[in-house]
Amino acid sequence: MSRVLIAGESWMTHSxxxxxxxxxxxxxxxxxxxPLRRALTxxxxxxxxxxxxxxxxxxxxxxxxxxxxxxxxxxxxGANSIQLSPSVFEQARPGSDRLGALRDWVHAGGGLLMVGxxxxxxxxxxxxxxxxxxxxxVLPVELLAEDDRVESPAGLQxxxxxxxxxxxxxxxxxxxxxxxxxxVLPRANSSVLATLDGDPLVAVSEFGAGRSAVFTSDxxxxxxxxxxxxxxxxxxxxxxxxxxxLAR
Length: 248
Hints:
Blueprint: E1 3-8, E2 10-19, E3 22-31, H1 34-41, E4 46-50, H2 55-58, H3 63-66, E5 71-75, H4 79-83, H5 86-91, H6 98-107, E6 111-115, E7 141-143, E8 149-156, E9 159-160, E10 178-182, E11 184-186, E12 191-196, E13 199-207, E14 210-215, H7 226-229, H8 234-246
Parallel strand pairs: 1-4, 1-5, 5-6, 6-14
Antiparallel strand pairs: 2-3, 7-11, 8-10, 9-12, 12-13, 13-14
Protein name: Cytoplasmic protein
Pfam family, one: GATase1_like
InterPro entries: Class_I_gatase-like, GATase1-like
């Protein structure tokens, strides 16, 4: 059993409804973590979910806090949310370099997985912004300087390069279509296990005594439609395999 922290995979929406001369607003809170959480707990892992709105105040500050986990998963949560705690952003008080602490924790033996989304890697309009952080060096891929999203509404088929690699968990056969991903570039010392349209989909590497991995599409809709994340047994095998490889 591994102890897994998933940061992100939640959001709030605020909608304006206009009906002729009148309008009103509605708000909603949504979590997209459930397919991933269910896949990992189903394989015996202990999962803690830190929703996106709690990340600025509650993400682990240092190596001691991170040592409560074997693997940290960042999914659809930008670098600003991790780095800018309320005391730093709202009160201009020096705080912890959380991404630096995460980098050092991986180098000392931890496992890091980044999953794609509008606020992963470089992200929508560059707002995820990991390219200019110390965590960039940890990832098995190079990030683009510009908006890196690739929207593929007709769907893309994964090309599995190393089906026997343990990080893929023994997923067999053709993978269901994915509807988009974050475009990244492989590093020389990384292993690209699967691609989408020639770009890395799953890549892994060693970093010091630790390991890092990426899954550049989503773990939930919209890029990962239900046939992929809800109906396909290979989904749990892939994400379970990634976590288990990262945790050694």
